[in-house]
């Protein structure tokens, strides 16, 4: 999936990611997934941060099944079956289709992971809000796979700068 990144050299932050339907669908698919499925997919990457919700998940997995009303109860908590995955199977949830967002739509994803329709006015408002000018902005178009979506979801749970955390290296070494 091709995405476009806008970075402020002065702030050393990715300000905006522009993407199409595919990237947006994969990112927002996590909103309809059970939390247990998200914990399972993000697993070890959350463990190193001492994520408390991940601790709940792993402690349940370690408990003996006799601690639960039935062994099925433990299974459904730590490995919930779900149509809502990153792959095409989420199409079963969306009436008549394979997408959450309109075909051909282009979106901006902000540093706080807020999503808006791509427009010139939105980009200009962002530049104004961070007190930047066009001369301060670097632009890159890169290929971003599902691995980047997973990293972005993880960073969104643990960071205030998820775009920069995940895509900051796309611009090479930042000059001070």
TrEMBL record:
InterPro entries: DUF674. It holds the Pfam family DUF674. PANTHER family: OS01G0153900 PROTEIN, OS09G0544700 PROTEIN. This is Uncharacterized protein.
């Amino acid at each position: 999936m091709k995405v476009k990144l806008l970075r402020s050299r002065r702030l050393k932050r990715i300000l905006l990611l522009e993407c199409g339907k595919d990237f947006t669908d994969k990112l927002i698919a996590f909103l309809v997934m059970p939390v247990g499925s998200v914990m399972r997919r993000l697993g070890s990457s959350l463990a190193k941060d001492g994520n408390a919700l991940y601790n709940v998940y792993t402690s349940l997995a370690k408990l003996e099944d006799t601690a639960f009303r039935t062994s099925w109860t433990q299974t459904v908590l730590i490995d919930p079956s779900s149509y809502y995955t990153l792959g095409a199977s989420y199409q079963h949830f969306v009436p008549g289709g394979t997408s959450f967002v309109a075909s051909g739509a282009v979106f901006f994803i902000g540093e706080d992971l807020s999503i808006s329709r791509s427009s010139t006015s939105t980009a200009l408002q962002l530049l104004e809000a961070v007190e930047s000018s066009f001369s301060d902005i670097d632009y890159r178009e890169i290929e971003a796979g599902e691995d980047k979506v997973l990293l972005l979801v993880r960073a969104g749970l643990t960071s205030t700068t998820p775009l920069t955390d995940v895509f900051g290296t796309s611009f090479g070494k930042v000059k001070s």
